[in-house]
Write a structure and sequence with these properties.
The chain has about 325 residues and is α+β, with helices and mostly antiparallel strands. The chain is built from eleven helices and eight strands. It folds into two domains: about 55 residues; about 220 residues, Glutaredoxin (3-Layer(aba) Sandwich). The strands form two sheets. A six-stranded mixed beta sheet has the order 4-3-6-5-7-8, with helices on both faces. The longest helix is centred in the N-terminal third of the chain and has 53 residues. The radius of gyration is 35 Å and the shape is elongated.
Length: about 325
Amino acid sequence: MARHTRNSYSSTAANTSWYGGVDAGDLLLQARRAQEVKERKQRRIIGFIAFVIVVIFIAVIGLVSYRSIAKRNAAQNITEDQAYATLQDVKVKPKFANDKGGILFSNAGYGKKAANAPTLEIYTDPMCPGCAVLHQQMDATFRAMLDAGQINLEIHPVTFLDNMSTDHYSSRADNGVAYISSNDPNPDHLVDFLTNIHSDSFQPEEAANYKPVSNDQLQQQAIASGVPADIAAKAFGSEYEPWLSAAAQYTLRRPELKDIDGQFKGKLTTPVVVINGKMLDISGISDIGLTYKVAILQSIGLSNEDIGRAGAQPAIGSKGNPTFPKTQPTA
C-alpha cells in the first residue's frame, strides 16, 4: 500500500474542502437532488390541480351540453297543441303580438286592420337568403299598399337560423322587430328596418361565412329606417327571446305552413307567405318563373297600376280566397 506523504496529503487537501467529514461536492449534489425532488413534487401537485380543473371543466361542459340537448329534444317532442300552450304562457311578449306569434299592422296602426283588405302573413328569418329576396322584391310594394289601406301585414319573426351565426344574430335582429313594434307607433319604420337588414349590403352570410354583426350596426339600420335613436338603442337585447323561441317551436309544428310539393314537401321552409289564411306555394311559383310581386298581386287580385292607389282594393277583400297562380299542370 502506498503511503501518503505530507506533501501528497497537502496537495490533496488543497484541492478538496472538508466539513465534518463530508465532501463539499457531495453537499452540493445532495442539495441539487433535494431541489429536484422538491420541484418534481411541485410539478405533480400542479399537474394534479390542472387535471382536476380540466375534469371539472369537462364535467361542466358536459352538463351544459346535456341540458341543452335535453331541452332541445324535449322541445322537438312536444305536439302542436303543447307548443301553442307554451307560447301563450310566455310572460314577456311584444305589445301587439297575437296568439300565433305574429305582429299585425296596417295604415290604421299596430294591432288594427284596414277595412276590406286582405291580410298577408310573412314568416321571415333575418339570416334567410330566400327571405332577403322576398323583402327586396316586395317591401316597397308592401309599403305602398299598406299606406293606401290595400293590405294588412302580419310579420312573424322566426329564428330558425340562429345557430348559423356565432352571436345569435337572428334572435337579436328579431328582438329588434319585437321591440320596435312595441315602442315606435309608425309601422312604416318597421317595414323599412326589415328592408334594410335584408339588403345585399347588410344581411350576413350563414355558417362558416358568417361575420359577427354588432348591436351598434343593427341600431344604425334601425335609425336609418326612421326609428328614434333612443328606441333603437334599447331594441337589440334579449327580453323577447323566450317569446321568439316559443313562437318558432309553434310555427314549426303548424301543418298548414309546410311545403305542399317539391323537394321540401312536408317541411317548413322560409319565407312563408299566407294570404287570408291560405299559403302561397312559393316552390311552385319559382318553378314556373314568377316573381313574388307577380304571384302576390295575382293572388290578391290587384293590378300593378293600382298599387298604392287609394280606393282601389284587392278583389279578394278581407275574407276571399286568394287566386293563386296555377303552379301544377292540369290533367
